[in-house]
Write a structure and sequence with these properties.
The structure holds three protein chains of three kinds.
Chain A lengths: L1 H12 L4 H8 L1 H18 L1 H4 L31 H36 L2 H15 L3 H12 L3 H28 L2 H8 L4 H37 L11 H10 L6 H28 L8
Chain B lengths: L6 E14 L2 E14 L3 E5 L6 H8 L7 E3 L4 E4 L2 E2 L5 H7 L4 E4 L3 H4 L6 H8 L7 H14 L5 H4 L9 H13 L5 E5 L7 H18 L2 E6 L2 H7 L2 E6 L2 E7 H6 L4 H9 L49 E4 L2 E3 L2 H5 L1
Parallel strand pairs in B: 3-9, 3-10, 7-8, 8-9
Antiparallel strand pairs in B: 1-2, 1-4, 1-5, 5-6, 10-11, 11-13, 12-13
Chain C lengths: L1 H28 L4 H6 L5 H11 L5 H13 L13 H36 L4 H15 L2 H15 L14 H35 L2 H8 L4 H38 L5 H10 L3 H29 L1 H4 L3
Helix pairs in contact in C: 1-12, 5-6, 5-8, 5-10, 6-8, 7-8, 7-10, 8-10, 10-11, 10-12, 11-12
The chains are: A mainly alpha, B alpha/beta, C mainly alpha.
């Protein structure tokens, strides 16, 4: 208890990077950070690190196990799995960044509208958010894919629709809480316009919880992309995705275990990394939310 | 101390520290307290003076960061509670020493029926469930719950606050304990209920031959109910004695100021209520001399140099103040 | 309680209707011609028009929506585009398998998660508690299809302890249960973690309450305090949470059914997506959404019924 209080004070006194130093003190947070950095760098540097061209076929050594030449073996077409995984990371992070970023922005705007706008708009938006949450996400995705066909854009669209309500709810709650505080009333008395008030005062207050949610959402989004690609309803071949590597591996699971194992590892690293990092971030940035751990 | 009575509870040199992130909080220091047989002893003091820590130490219900110092002893009917095995301790709790808590609204489990909560306390008795329920019904009747047999199946939320405190008293006395500890049992209730509950407790204790340790910050209640009083300040006992003697011949400046502050005893009309100026000392960093010296209007030379020990005012009255020694 | 039940039931129906409105309008809004995608590039305009008329897609949006709702009420979910069998019959055949799978997942979660959470709360800050904490986060984070694939690889393909595929012989309960073990684990492992954390947090909260202190002061045994006095209260929010859990278990069930080649709604819908069988997909989505709403409703009602304060108050 006393620890929490003193660290809370520390954050206020040294706003710069104090939270970061505190994050480094949490072993699990550190572990998460390392995993996340590993994934990010391997995705960015995929072209340099990858020992083989991820599209290059080598039928003679197909479904090979790990060796010095093919660190994680090869797939059913003889393509180097390690190189494909590195490039698959690019797809995963691209989907995650684009869709989480868009949901965050969209949720922020919708949430502030709901919180600041008239009550009929608030009710309408809340009903909308509630009904989105009533779907099992995968089912919603499957329905949309049936109509528009599988593609990267479809995945991003589905993720945006299903994750936006989460951000909007937080933004709405914070807006409602901030709306009636005295400094906002004072600003309005001084004649400041609503948009000005929103962006200069509300946004800085809301951004932190939204970022925490975003870091927790990234692994969820990556899972959705990989899952749909695993079902063959995600990105189209020959674009490498962790999900489609798993799909190939599933098809040849009796011939070689390596493709399934190799396809799963980056997903485990990414989801664990972002989850541990997200939890540590939440504990550091928002001690109020800290679950007793 | 008083040869007319055998003692039920004898607390000797009890000191309790709490280990916190800020340092060691010395919550109780060298507390001595005696509860004679068939008597009611009141503990009075401001919030944070260590009343709760004291009664919690008697049943060893302290928080995990509490440390009871080696020299302490809490002897109940000849057995040291502090040295007991967990099994023996369980045998004491609720059976020989029982407790009525401050807030009856939260003291009962909301999802377990009153009957079950009562019969659970009787786990040590070798009797049939029907007999246990009959005993519980009888106790509920004695504390004035109408239609007790039907109400055993009810849950706490179906009773009012006063009724819940009556149920707690019934639970406390069900095993016919030697000592009942009451931790401000009426502060959460309104004034009309207060008198009823107090009289109920007094009557029942007399009927069951049970001693009582009664904690309160209400001096009026203490005066009405208790035979002896212990005044606590910042983790120390500053004055104790027979209730009549102590209230009429208070020796410690703190006790006198406490009496002056009691709204019930303020005779003349005045705009501001009397208060004790200054604040309770930091229990992590204690002053060298008397604990009350920084706030004491009658402070003189010896007070800030060394701590006073307990001095006899008369055979039934002691105070921890140099004035008594020097008088 | 009756009024509460009716109110919650009405709310659940309303949410399902709104969700379907949302889905239909999302489909309506996104660019693309379902008939074109369904029939392929070689379809003639006449064929597309006929397809649209068959699916009712030539009507205005709200007519489509209310006709859909009206059909749902009468149990008519349309027909399979290719085999022309009624979708409701097909769902009726597949649904029990999916429910059994979700229950198996829930079973894993309850059997492992609740004791883990209780243990952690009682032995707070012990080594095992910290280990459980990390383990639960891991369980929550790892995608269910990875759990499924690895479990299939390890226990079925390599070690051959459990069967690889299918739901087991129709008449043989034991065989069916054995076939549920691995898919259930895949579906439920994430919820093992959720439950362990949630139970721990709510147990710790309850353990700090006054009545627990009172129970201690009256010498009740630690076992009785933990497993009756505290757990009975801590379990209430957990039961409500389980309802939400069933919804995500159904999402996980899609993968488990594909991986273990089990019959079920998920497999039916994925197959239908691949063959552009629009009515089956819609039917599947509707049924799973209803299942989700229903399980949330049921668990809320159970939680309310378990709590005497609500049971007798409403």
């Amino acid at each position: 208890m006393a620890d929490t209080i003193s660290s809370d004070v520390a954050i206020r006194r040294e706003p710069r990077f104090a939270w970061f130093r505190q994050l480094l003190r949490d072993p699990l947070g550190c572990f998460g950070l390392v995993l996340v950095l590993l994934i990010i760098f391997s995705a960015i540097g995929a072209d340099i690190i990858a020992p083989h061209d991820y599209k290059a076929l080598d039928v003679k050594s197909r479904l090979a196990g790990p060796s010095w030449d093919h660190l994680l073996g090869t797939d059913n077409l003889g393509r180097d799995t390690f190189s494909r995984i590195l490039h698959g990371g690019q797809i995963a992070l691209y989907v995650a960044l684009v869709s989480v970023g868009s949901s965050l922005l969209l949720g922020l705007v919708l949430g502030m509208l709901a919180g600041y706008g008239p009550s009929w708009l608030d009710n309408l938006l809340m009903w909308f958010f509630d009904s989105v949450r009533a779907f099992p996400v995968i089912m919603f995705a499957l329905a949309v894919i049936t109509v528009v066909g599988p593609s990267l854009e479809t995945i991003i669209f589905v993720v945006i629709v299903t994750t936006t309500p989460g951000y909007a709810r937080i933004a709405r709650a914070s807006t409602l809480a901030t709306k009636s505080t005295e400094f906002i009333l004072a600003e309005r008395a001084l004649g400041a316009g609503v948009p000005r008030i929103m962006f200069s005062h509300l946004v800085p207050n809301i951004v932190q919880p939204l970022l925490i949610l975003a870091s927790m959402d990234i692994p969820v989004v990556i899972t959705i992309e990989a899952g749909l690609s695993f079902l063959g309803l995600g990105v189209k071949p020959p674009t490498p995705s962790w999900g489609s590597i798993l799909n190939d591996g599933y098809g040849f699971i009796r011939n070689t275990p390596w493709l399934v194992i190799a396809g799963g590892i980056p997903l485990i690293i990414t989801t664990l990394g972002f989850t541990f990092l997200g939890e540590a971030l939440r504990d550091v940035l928002d001690p109020k939310l800290k679950k007793d751990r | 101390m008083n040869d007319r009575h055998d003692t039920v509870l004898e607390v000797r040199d009890l000191s309790v520290d709490f280990l916190t992130g800020r340092g060691t909080v010395r919550a109780l220091r060298h507390v001595d307290l005696t509860v004679p047989d068939n008597r009611i002893v009141g503990i009075v003091g401001e919030s944070g003076c260590g009343k709760s820590t004291l009664i919690n130490s008697v049943l060893r219900l302290l928080a995990a960061n509490a440390v009871v110092t080696e020299s302490s002893s809490v002897v109940f009917k000849g057995r040291d509670v502090l040295a007991m095995s967990p099994a023996d301790l369980r045998g004491i709790r609720g059976q020989e020493i029982s407790m009525v808590f401050q807030d009856p609204m939260t003291a009962l489990n909301p999802v377990i029926s009153i009957g079950t909560q009562m019969t659970d306390i009787l786990y040590r008795l070798d009797m049939s469930m029907a007999d246990k329920r009959r005993l519980a019904t009888d106790m509920l009747g004695q504390v004035g719950i109408p239609d007790p047999a039907q109400r055993l199946a009810d849950y706490p939320h179906q009773f009012s606050g006063g009724m819940r405190q009556r149920i707690c008293i019934a639970m406390a006395l069900m095993m016919n304990p030697g000592l009942l500890i009451a931790d401000e049992p009426t502060t959460a209730l309104d004034v009309t209920l207060e008198a009823q509950i107090i009289h109920l407790m007094k009557d029942l204790c007399a009927r069951f031959g049970c001693s009582m340790l009664f904690v309160s910050h209400n001096l009026g209640l203490i005066a009405e109910l208790c035979d002896e009083v212990v005044v606590m300040y910042a983790g120390e006992v500053v004055e104790q004695g027979e209730v009549h003697d102590l209230f009429h011949r208070a020796q410690h400046p703190y006790t006198r100021m406490l009496l002056d502050c009691d709204p019930a005893r303020i005779a003349e009309k005045r705009r501001d209520l009397p208060t004790i100026s200054g604040s309770v000392p930091d229990l992590i960093d204690l002053p060298r001399g008397c604990i009350f010296a920084p706030r004491c209007p009658e402070r003189y030379a010896p007070c800030s140099d060394s701590a006073p020990s307990t001095y006899d005012v008369n055979a039934v009255h002691q105070a921890r103040c140099f004035q008594v020694r020097d008088a | 309680m009756l009024f509460y039940t009716i109110k919650r039931f009405g709310l659940a129906i309303l949410i399902v209707c709104l969700a379907m409105l949302m889905l239909l309008s999302a489909i309506h809004l996104v660019p693309g011609d379902p008939a074109g995608i369904a029939l392929g590039p070689r379809a003639t305009p006449e064929m597309r028009a006929e397809f649209r008329a068959l699916m009712g897609m030539d009507q205005p949006f709200f007519v489509q929506y209310f006709r859909f709702l009206g059909n749902v009420v009468t149990g008519d979910l349309g027909v399979d585009v290719w085999s022309r069998r009624p979708v409701s019959t097909m769902i009726g055949e597949q649904l029990p398998h999916t429910i059994a799978l979700a229950m198996a997942g829930l079973g894993w979660a309850i059997v492992l998660g609740i004791p883990m959470g209780c243990y952690s709360a009682v032995h707070r800050n012990s080594v095992l508690d910290k280990l459980t904490g990390v383990l639960s986060v891991g369980c929550i984070a790892i995608p269910s299809f990875i759990v499924g694939l690895y479990a299939l690889l390890l226990f079925a393909v390599e070690l051959k302890i459990f069967p690889e595929i299918g739901a087991g012989d129709a008449g043989d309960i034991e065989d069916q249960l054995v076939h549920l073990v691995l898919p259930g684990l895949a579906v439920g492992l994430g919820w093992v973690g959720y439950l362990a954390r949630f139970v721990r947090t709510s147990m710790l909260e309850v353990m700090g309450e006054n009545h627990i202190r009172m129970a201690r002061a009256y010498g009740l045994s630690n076992r009785r305090i933990t497993y009756v006095y505290a757990l009975k209260l801590a379990i209430l929010p957990t039961v409500a949470l389980l309802g939400v859990g069933v919804g995500s278990l159904i999402s996980g069930a899609v993968f488990a059914e594909i991986i273990f080649a089990r019959p079920g709604i998920g497999k039916m819908v994925v197959d239908a997506v691949n063959t552009r069988n629009y009515p089956i997909v819609m039917g599947g989505v509707l049924v799973t959404t209803m299942l989700f709403a229903l399980s949330t409703l049921i668990s809320d009602l159970i939680a309310a019924w378990l709590d005497p304060r609500i049971r007798q108050g409403l």
